[in-house]
Amino acid sequence: MGDTLGLLEEARQVAADLGYVVREEPLGDLPGGRCTVGGVVHVLLNISQSASDRLECLVSAISPDPRLATVPKSRLLEVRCRRQVRGEAAD
Questions:
Q1: Does the structure show a pLDDT above 90 at 88?
Q2: How far apart are CA 85 and CA 91, in angstroms?
Q3: What's the CA gap between 55 and 9, in Å, rounded?
Q4: What SS3 state is found at 39?
Q5: Which of 19, 22, 28, 69 reaches 20 to 30 Å from 63, CA-CA?
């Protein structure tokens, strides 16, 4: 769980570095995801989901961004993002 929370926090910072606004809100049964509001890209995370699910949602939202390669990140987060792009399941 510690790795998950640390990765979630790192992914939030990476998303912010890329210009995303990350918001955690109660979204009912919706998992959240990426959306654009007024030209600003937001990533909505369902606060009622587990940290692991929120991490997967956030990684899914930022992984396709080509600018991701230019942002410093841990090897662990980099591997997760690559797996997401390739469509592989997380460990």
A1: no
A2: 15
A3: 9
A4: coil
A5: 28
